[in-house]
Amino acid sequence: MAEETKTSSLRESIALALAFLFWYVGNTFYNQYNTMALKAVGGKHGGLTMTVSTMQLGVCSAYALILWVVGYNPIKLFGLQAPAKMPLPKITKGDLAATLPVGCFSAAAHSAGVFCLGADPLFGQIVKAGEPVMSAFVSTLFYKGKESMAKLVCLVFIVGGVAFASLKKDEAGNYKLKFDQTALIAGMLGNIFAAFKGTETKKLMKLDGVKERYQGVGNQFAVTEVLAFLVSVPVMIFTEGAKWGEFCSLMMTSKELQLGLAVSGMTFYLYNELATLTIKAVGPVASSVANTAKRVIVMVYMSTFVTGKPLTEEQQIGSAVAISFVMIYAVVDILVAKVFPPPPKEKKTN
Q: What is the rounded distance in angstroms from the CA atom of residue 290 to the CA atom of residue 275?
């Protein structure tokens, strides 16, 4: 019996390690092939960024539909485990309406992220690392949340790191602001939308019976991606509809666009699923370290193998500060509670 338990524990550990590995690989590949797809349509000045973002969600939606038709989700194969059943969710119209805000914010966060990384893949990663700042802002302003003093101190360093990464020395050796405005604005908007999405998802799953009717996180994520695609289509038509013919022509002739869209869409879906599995399986400390490592790996990979553009000294220092304090931000309250435990509550006497 003890031997079986030990073997089972070993299998779970191997599955978790592989899930982390493929989460990193998937995120890295997403960034690489997202860049490829955007370059194929003319880059940030090509006027087809929203179309690329929407078509990526289209790939995600097509994959979700295939999963429901097949009835199995193969995501656990990455951890050398058997695929899990994925029946159609038994959600009601009310559940779908409650999920719509999550889908809208998911669509907005994804599109803003594509605009951000399309403008500057390296600086965009640094800006996206500042998500806790916007999360705290959204939580405090819209959901009556309250951040601890320790977390507020961390936010100062995160903002400072991003700000320092925006600096560059001129010929005289003086610092001046130099950054891609589109990357900064789109990245910050993406962080805001991601914060709304996270909070709305938590609210959704707390509704009576919703968790049971969705029959798993995989179904909830799949429905969210389909809704995100449906929400993005009218925005794409309104903003870039006049260039649809040009996009279709490129799709027929450009192998880079075909490959870039297919791989970026699939890896976006898969790495998000793997991230959900791993974060659920480990504590806040491990998930924070994992997220920090992911940012560093992606930045180094993109700088070395994709853009060929090395990080400036300011970007190296700024990103190191920002990403480090993002990790600390996630666990600082736990650390403070261990060092300065709260006084025990006094028992009330009658």
A: 10
Tokens 């989460």 label which residue?
A: 23
Q: Identify the CA nearest to 121 among candidates 28, 50, 194.
A: 28
Beta strand 167-169 pairing with 175-177: antiparallel
DSSP 169: E
Q: What is the dihedral of CA 180, 182, 183, 187, to 10 degrees?
A: 150
> Which letter, b or e, does each residue of 265-285 get, where b requires 16 or more Cβ atoms within 10 Å of its Cβ?
bbbbbbbbbbbbbbbeeeeee
Per-residue model confidence as pLDDT tens digits over 208-237: 888 889 988 889 999 999 999 999 999 999
State the Cα–Cα distance between residues 88 and 80, nearest whole angstrom: 24
**Taking the mean position of all CA atoms in its chain, how far away is CA 257?**
22
SS3 call for 289: helix
What residue ranges do the domains of the chain occupy?
19-145+179-281
| Cβ partners under 8 Å of residue 73, min gap 6 | 67, 83, 84, 85, 86, 218
Which pLDDT value is given to residue 19? Answer: 83
> Which amino acid type is present at position 189?
L
What is the mean pLDDT of the segment spanning 64-84? Answer: 88
- E strands, the chain, where? 72-73, 84-85, 167-169, 175-177
